[in-house]
């Protein structure tokens, strides 16, 4: 039996992936704010680093000597501005999407089995070439993203600043996957690391922090009636079923990256392995983000 740990597995396409994983020979531990009705869940709130540490401790206690075969870091949020702060004082979108998951990855890294799979959910919006309509990342400076008020290039328009916080956090996911794949421990244990872009998937919990009209439109576009014709209009649009089943395929090892690739993108329900954005290809930038993130969460490099 495989053992997997997952965030973002109670709503949207993450819930579809979780349901499929639990239907097979898999023990799935999901981090969730509230107990789940099916499977095994452990309380997790990504807005506090101490809460992430408590989750990791609980998972390790439950595991005992059992190793983790797949770690799925799938939860995410987009907010209308960068005014929100976590209990640790960090900008909320960056803290939830990147810092909390980076900390969880580092804490659970020793539990991963040889050949384990790590999937970090990212977004094509990290790449200006996708022309997704959101403000694209100017940098991946962890200190400036954690404290955007210190960023001299910060957009004064709240919505655009919020978009940048989101797309930059997704750039960080691609860079973290890149850094992890080159990590000596990862290479020694032959970990399979993927930054997964599910494309534009409406109807998920991602937009829960947005204004009511946007949340309503997001929900309606996610219905099966509208999602299918939408996917024919834009190759980046995917249904929740397609995105969730592909995430499950990655977790189960049924979709494996070609040598040298850590970025996967779902396009018209087909998994592809393109190059990420130019910024996301920088090894020095990936290492700098890894080290800066470690300092922010209080870990050694």
UniProtKB/TrEMBL annotation:
Keyword Protein transport: no
Region of interest (Disordered), ranges: 129-162
GO molecular function, one term: oxidoreductase activity
Compositionally biased intervals (Basic and acidic residues): 147-162
SUPFAM superfamilies: NAD(P)-binding Rossmann-fold domains (SSF51735)
Protein family: Belongs to the short-chain dehydrogenases/reductases (SDR) family.
Name assigned to this protein: SDR family NAD(P)-dependent oxidoreductase
Organism for this UniProt entry: Nonomuraea diastatica
